Fold each of these.
Amino acid sequence: MEGHSVYVPKSGFTKWLEARLPIISLTHSSAVAYPVPRNLNYFWTFGAILTMMLVVQIVTGVVLAMHYVPNAKLAFASVEAIMRDVNFGWLLRYMHANGASMFFIAVYIHIFRGMYYGSYKAPREVLWILGVIIFLLMMATAFMGYVLPWGQMSFWGATVITNLFSAFDEIIPGVGTWIVTLLWGGFAVDNPTLNRFFALHYLLPFMLAGVVGLHIWALHHVGQNNPTGVEVKNICKDTVPFTPYATVKDAVGVVFFLILFAWFLFYIPNFMGHADNYIEANPSVTPAHIVPEWYFLPFYAILRAIPSKLGGVLAMFSAVLILAFLPWLDTSKVRSGNYRPVFRVFFWLFVAACVVLGWLGAKPAEGGYTLAAQILTVFYFSYFLIILPLLGLFETPRQLPGSIAEAVLAKKAKRAAPADASVNG
Amino acid sequence: MAETVPSAEPTRRDFLLIATGAVGAVGAAAVAWPFIAQMQPDAATIAAGAPVEVDLTPVAEGQILKLFWRGKLIFVRHRTKAEIESAAKVDVASLRDPQPDSARVKEGHAQWLVVYGNCTHLGCVPLGHQGAYEGWFCPCHGSVFDTSGRIRQGPAPTNLPIPPYTFVSDSKITIG
């Protein structure tokens, strides 16, 4: 996108550098002059928050890897050594473990924001799909990271999740078993599994960083969506330069998010973990209640809601992959949920369904819980496959503002004269 | 740039393009092979699967012995008369994975049931003497197995598989 200003090198050195590698002008056009819709709210600061969390995870992870031993006999003790012996090891490990949860809190808010404001619609489909790929990579990374401490939950989580692939035996006998043996490097989850998971857990965040780069590139090419969902029409009137406006707003969001992070980190560092993971892995005993980390619970509830192994596995993977098709499933021409009265209701029902599914995922799979999970699973898929396609055809959206500037000025006028506003509706 | 003249006849350039492409594809597959094969169980892991001998004398009636072979958990269950009867009298046709009890034990050794100890759903360890059939109950996702290790309720698709084993004597078996 065309920016608010153009970088002109002034000194001899910058002129010399610009002629060889135009890196300063690239930084200027994408982080200083880049036009940002002037009506963005705080939900738009989560991109910056997520970028920061990725950096936090990579930095703490690299440092932890200097003390951790990826060997089935030594891994558990090495994590305890990090907690007790390594200088500030407890802090670094808690930062990394809670950081993963904070990363997912931020990504879920970021995804729901995109879903509410229709940020996936043309021309942002590729941007959205790159986001789904980031989400998938995050899930794979988080899963493998959780295996590394080699506690009971690590071991049995690894067993259950890798066994998901054995469901393919029901399509072509032997294929599932072959894949699972390939993942394990043995006949059960054991040392070879831990070793390769460690290598991949170290690799994936850098692939994640690469896809994040593409995600930001795509974003800067098409421009940001905004709460009205109306495209930028006039750069001068509808947008402000990224620096200082977005930079400062993002910084405020980051600070408040860090306060939440610090609260978990220093006051309840084990709140989102499981006590069972402080018991070393034992392949002959499964803990009575195995549950995945909280951020997988809605998908886990969907897996358990289907009374067939293959069906459950397919439903769980579909629940994530269906997100990639969202740009084509939502048929409405209007982007923002602010102007879609019926969509809004279903959107919040969908959010509630995801939260309740998460709660059900932590409950035992029996009786009423299973039935509730089944009903919500049907709703989850109906939202994408029935409700969104039909809403676009039948819903009458509210009048869209002519431009972003118009929407902002109307809001200001309303605030200045509240009495008039109530008369005008 | 020089103009290329489209010709109906295959040229030497067409031949070179196809030949190079084919060799390249074979080469890529040949390089990919070791990178995938290295993920398979290595020699040490396979060697650790040497047969193990199990002495059955200390296993009392009703008891379930847990042991490992090739890193996999195995249950050796000394079944009681009642457990054998309840496993034998089931209508085989009504089972999800139909197998008579006699096909799951060695002839003349019906009191000994030897099965893998991981649920066929997602691999958790089922708890012995629990569930509606007093066989096993898996706490993870609720699969129920009978005293023959056959799936009766819940999401598991198949019976607990039987590892390869033979009776060396009446009180000793070799697994593997």
Note: Residues 17 and 249 of chain A are 31 Å apart (CA to CA).
Amino acid sequence: MEEPRTNQQLPPNVNIQDYINVDVPQEPAQQNGTQNNSRNEPFSSDQEEVDERIDLALFKGATNIIRLFVPVTLCMIIVVATVTSATNYTQSSGTFFYTPLSEKSSTGAARFGISLANTLIFLSVVIVMTVVLILLYKFSCYKIIHGWLIVSSLLLLFLFALIYWGQVLERYNVPMDYLTTALVIWNFGVPGMACIHWKGPLRLQQLYHIIISSLMALVFIKYLPDWTTWVLLALISVWDLVAVLCPFGPLKILVETAHERNEQIMPGLIYSSTMAWIVNAADDVPAAQGGNTETHRLEGRTNPNFGVDSNQTADVPAQNNQGDNANNNSQLAMRSLSSESVEEERGVKLGLGDFIFYSLLVGKASSYGDWNTTLACFIAILIGLSLTLFLLAIFKRALPALPISIFFGLIFYFATSQIVKPFMTRTAAHQVFI
Amino acid sequence: MTIKEFFGCAFLAFGPAVSLFIFVVGREPIRVILFIASSFFWLIALLISSLLWFAVVPLREKLAFGLVFSVLFQEASRLAYYKLVQKAENGLQKMMQDGQAGADEDSKQIKFIKNHHLMALVCGLAFGMTSGAFALVNILSASVGPGTVGIHGDSDHFFITSSLLTFAFVMLNTFWQVISYAALDKKSYWQVGVVVIFHLLASCLTLLNNRDPPIYAATITPAYVLLIISGIWAFVVAGGSLSGIKAFCGF
């Protein structure tokens, strides 16, 4: 690792252990490392101070949690609105390339077996693709990775958007000629490509990430068989857990490699609450607070369908402020600039895959027409997300965002649709209020 | 017509609550988290009561049984949430001190943490809105149509009465939370008991809607009387007074 990087690298590596073991010689390095660090009270080896710091780090996440609530909610709203209004989205047509077995005409155990088989096929594709991606990354085949990512987002932004547009038009019975459609799709897709892979306003980039995720989730809702979806949700969160936390989990390797190389994780795969990749901030704004520029990483997965990756990784330096972003935009510095100007990325990140599977769960729940179930799943997922972020603040390392949320979501889906729904239907019908 | 009815009912039931949410809760991250967590607690209470209702097969047709236990579970989860918030309070305070905003903003935030009434309001609003949403959301989605209300001789005031009662319950839950949290702070437990009785009373009275034909006057009137009593009570508990109102209005 070359010289300047050592300094840069220091803050991300700070973890609880560092707080406790921190000693005087390290202090100057810490303060030179990043400008914003020097603004904060110096580290102290005093035990009470240390405890204080841990507590501070622990509870700093409120704003970050909200930063993720909004986009996750938006993504779910798009999916749920589409599923409930455009009913042709719920009539599954044909089978998916990755889930070849049809659930129709089988019941009970046989159906469960088929959905399990489907899920395993799907999951093995996911695993293979993830491993391929990680290998490419490990051996620095950036060209191939970028090509892959660009093709994926190209497909999503043009083909899937076209399918979506077609479905919506069909639902509302609106005729539209090819020329207009082409114009609409072109004007939708090209800014999206620019925002995701090159540069663009942060808000627009976030919006495109949300749209991409909801398009993907809608495709899943349309093509995945009923039971397969639920089995898939359960197994994919287990895979998520394994991939991020196991010693040789591919996503753990990805995150660590990216860390070692001091790079951002690939564009088009993660939603970030601040400008995080391609352009970095040459930040001379006194970055508010947070001496501990701890980097949390949240999770990752690769999930290839039509070659689309929805890898997710989130870095959560627990602090960032809105004011900074505005300033940053005017002071963009390309990543290729020397490392001094490359400020450590700040803000919360959540993989697009998380968005996809959250929305998949909520969308699928809403497709049966009961709003109580949808609401319950929504609340459960948000609670799971906040718990994950709190855990993130404690463990300060990459964490899978799916398991807790999806676990809660699944429990509340089945409990609500089987038990709560009849109760609430009855009370509502009799106008009895509890 | 159905669309109009939908919007009318939706705004009637949730208009005030949503505006409270926007002005009181929405801007502050910490309040949003409290809000979501609180609705999760309500959801758990609902789940437990549904489980009980579902498990006791012979009494499934008798809503009164499920209702009483549901009220008790809701009150229990209200208390449980109070305990949780109390425990988290220190942490929350630290979070605020370390918050994103400047010193000015900080002191405002800490005031919020210190201001238990405001916190109770946020949590109560979450309780009320979640319960209201669960009670009404399916009815609302049905109200868009297609269909005709009361074609089989039922009351054609079904939607409007449901919305009125939902509104009452959303607000009642909010007030009750303020009252019972203040009572728990002061350790005057009889007030908590009164809140439970109020809740039981309001809920059990809605059982009258079950009759054929429903006597709406007998359910909506007491619900709104309770609403006014609880509202005034909560106002007084939160430190309001007549002279305060006068001063506020500039008399």
Note: The radius of gyration of chain A is 23 Å.
